[in-house]
Amino acid sequence: MPDETDIVVPFPQLVHEEVERYCRDASSIDDQKLKVEQFTQFAIDILAAADQLDDGTICNYAKTVSNSRKANDSLKVNGYDFNEIENSIDLFVCSDYNGTDPAPSYTKPQIDELFNKCRRFFEAALGDLYTRIDQSHEAYNLAHRIHLERHKISRVRFMLFLDGFSKTKEKDSEKSQNIDFIYRIYDLNALEKYSESTKERPPIEIDLRSFGEPLPCLPIVSCGDDFDACVAMMSGELLYKLYGEHGSRLLERNIRSFLQAKNKINKGIKDTIFQCPERFLAYNNGISCTAEHVDFDFKGESCKILKIRNFQIVNGGQTTASIYNAFRINEKRKEKDRVDLRGVQVQAKISIIKNPAIIDDTVKKISLYANSQNKVSQSDFDALEPFHAKMEEFSRTVWAPPSPRHNRMTKWYYERARGAYGDEKSRGSGRRSAFTDVYPENQVFTKTDLARYESVWEELPQSACLGEQKNFRAFTNRSAAAELVPDRQYFMDAVAKKLVYDVAAAVIKQARLPSYKAQTASYCLAYVLHYRREKLDLKDIWKTQTVPGFVEASLKEVVLPIHKRLSESLEGQNVTEWCKKDTCWNTIRDLKITLPTVSP
Questions:
Q1: HEC per residue, 226-237
Q2: What is the distance between the terminal CA atoms of the chain, rounded to a whole angstrom?
Q3: If pLDDT is split at 50, 70 and 90, which confidence band does 375 have?
Q4: CB 447 within 8 A of CB 388
Q5: Averaged pLDDT, 161-176
């Protein structure tokens, strides 16, 4: 039973404490910039967990156009994410982080100004903006990539993150030069709702009448008490519209990493669509879907689907994304060059799961048994869920020895769900001090943090540079393939790896690098591990809660040459993308840098 002194701390306060915790050690010069970065990352993590976006890269850029002092001429962007399957880009723009109590309210003019700054950045990037940005700045990579892919981009979502509240309605979508411009506002109210929704995702509700006609299908077949089934003939145009509106949320979450492994339109699907669309139904296996409930319209012997609740495509993601891209390509062509794609039909097998208790297991099995294009194993669908529960259990039971910073025994808090630490800390004002005595604020790490530490420790800095969510999925797949089960020693080693990584992050901060700090930290530590791994004893690091001095000394030697090499890139590639390549790690690993001698 909750303590009577328990109180519910408002979400704005939790956000502020979360941002402050990550920025506490920042210098006063970079403090405001770091707070904006952390708030942006906070919003990205929440929305990625809620499947509103895939991932995100932080990119702080703000500039006023030359020869102008007008505020409405300025450009701004705080982050981005490219979706190569959808040929789309998400651009994040953030209010200046205030962290005030009460949280500020934003007016429509203020919101419009932030959207306009981000829109102007995109439009300038379509041109030659990249030539006016220092190549060492992350914004150079973003602007350059937008310029290179300007003829491919079909949709831009401007996503505004507010550290306060807004009563302004969503700005209407626009279309210009065959690009859809979509505007989304995420104030603290919205972020709180999405944070809550990650505990139980809101289902997709589709009223097919809003897309034209109801969907014709064969009569429903009962498969016992647990589920029914039916087969529908879905037009390519309908699938294109559904995917255009809901994107990757249509695709079962546990296998998104497999679907995104292929970024280009499947050549066979593309050729069929454009050369003989009427044969698509014969050549393609169709898609397998699940639903929680379906509303049918029975008239005589005919049967049509009116509405679908909790619709998911669990097999056929490549078909869906390929149809979407092909239709987008066709739509962007001049009218005289367009192909009549009305003949594209897709068979859709829909399993209507009537027993909520078996939904997750049934979806996994349908995906496993139906998938024929990409091999998917059972362990992939488990997604290491017991793994993180076990890590959380160890973090609540394992006491760490006293350390130089804490002359008492403490615990390390493994945050399985983002924000859990702040939420638990705030449950009772009278117990906050006691909680932080056990779990100090500098002894918290998340599952995406763990994935980053492990990737670097495995000498895969290129994976660590993929972005938090993509690297986490890569770590999940590697660990599942290895059938990794964490024990007490694994947990203690993970803490030791965090301590080592924190030293690398501190060295990067002290170096005051102008760009690519996260990438440099991962590559520098991987380099030192490659040449000094045998000198590191994780058990000893756990026992002392300290990192040997040679690690910091070695990192200080390598940080500038490695940053220089990363910034130079290779053969004109985008630096951020270059850091994700195996060849990048091969190049950095082969650098000849003299490291300090380590005493025996």
A1: CEEEEEEEEEHH
A2: 55
A3: very low
A4: yes
A5: 88
Closest C-alpha to 234, from 281, 164, 276: 281
Instruction: State residue 382's pLDDT score.
Output: 41
SS3 label, residue 540: helix
CA dist 90 and 182 (Å) reads 9
How far, in Å, CA of 49 to CA of 55, rounded? 9
Q: Which of 250, 239, 230 is nearest to 350 (CA)?
A: 230
- The two three-digit tokens of residue 289, written as one number: 């879907």
List, in sequence order, every residue forming a beta bridge with 64; answer none if it has no partner.
74
DSSP state of 176: E
**Residue 247 zone, left/alpha/beta (φ > 0; ψ -120 to 50; rest):** left
Distance (Å, rounded) from C-alpha 534 to C-alpha 553? 16
Coil vs helix vs strand at 440 = coil
Contacts 24+ apart (CB under 8 A), 518-521: 518/465, 519/461, 519/465, 519/566, 519/575, 519/576, 519/579, 520/559, 520/562, 520/563, 520/566
Distance, in Å, from the CA atom of 158 to the CA atom of 113, rounded to the nearest integer, reads: 12
Contact of 305 with 282, CB cutoff 8 Å? no
What length does the chain have? 600
Strand 165-166 to strand 205-207: parallel, antiparallel, or no bridges (unpaired)? unpaired
Tell me: the pLDDT tens digits for 290-333? 888 899 998 887 899 999 988 888 888 778 878 888 888 888 88
Among 436, 505, 391, residue whose Cα is nearest residue 17: 436
Long-range contacts of 366-373 (CB under 8 A, 24+ apart): 366/288, 366/290, 366/314, 366/315, 367/252, 367/254, 367/255, 367/288, 367/314, 367/315, 370/288, 370/314, 370/315, 371/255, 371/315, 372/285, 373/318
